[in-house]
Amino acid sequence: MSAVPKDSGEPFELVVWPGVTRVYGRPAEVFCKIKWDGVRLSITGVEGPLRNGNAIGGCGQLSDLTIDEYAQGWGADLLARFLAAWRAWHLNDMRPGCEHQRAQKWDERPIDPSKPTCSYGKHFAGQRSDSWNMLAWVNREEHPDGLLSYPCPVCGYKYGSSWLREEVPSDVLDFLRNLPPAGRTPAWV
């Protein structure tokens, strides 16, 4: 059996330990699991994993992760690159829009420009049900600029009608594959 080349798209699994954060004033080691099966990229994290399966802090998508004490090989720049890759490529096979809709950033268009897209609730007069402040979450019957189920002007794909897969670039896979491994086993493994 030969070693997998560092630049291949071969499947891999890696647990990384960026360092320690503070949760409610208490130190909590942060571990993240990166899994590439050759098609899908999945990245999850846990703040302060405990042997009983619980955790001191958050679990799953740690989008606002901060590190107070970096582990060996980690620093602010590496963490920023890791979090950017995580946000951009996690569950790359669950994209609601085609490549053209992604390029036009349909998922970043707010219903109400005075609020952030992460605002949840009603954002226009007559809105029937709560949603995120994103036009991609409402259709044209609800709002004149709604993008949900609206066809792409280039290829005709109706936004949100199925899950599409976006290829993860090889340089992103190489970056993730070559992150410093945890060097220790977290409680939940």
Describe the structure using short key phrases.
disordered N terminus, 5-stranded antiparallel sheet, 7 strands, 189 residues, 14% helix, 2 domains, globular, alpha+beta, two-stranded antiparallel ribbon
Descriptive overview:
The protein is α+β, with helices and mostly antiparallel strands. It has 2 domains: 12-93 and 167-177, no CATH class; 96-164, no CATH class. The protein has 3 helices and 7 strands.
**Elements, N to C (H/E):** EEEEEHHEEH
Coarse shape: globular
Q: N- to C-terminal separation?
A: 26 Å
Number of β-strand runs = 7
Radius of gyration: 20 Å
What proportion of the residues form beta strands (DSSP E)?
A: 15-25%
Low-confidence sequence ranges: 1-7
- Which sheet architecture does the biggest sheet show? 5 strands, antiparallel
Structural class: alpha+beta
Approximately how much helix is present in the residues? 10-25%
The overall pLDDT, averaged over residues, is: 91
The total of helices stands at 3
Number of domains: 2
Order of strands, widest sheet: 4-3-2-1-5
Describe how the helices and strands are arranged.
Layout: E1 12-23, E2 26-36, E3 41-47, E4 59-60, E5 69-70, H1 76-89, H2 99-103, E6 120-121, E7 131-132, H3 170-177
Antiparallel strand pairs: 1-2, 1-5, 2-3, 3-4, 6-7
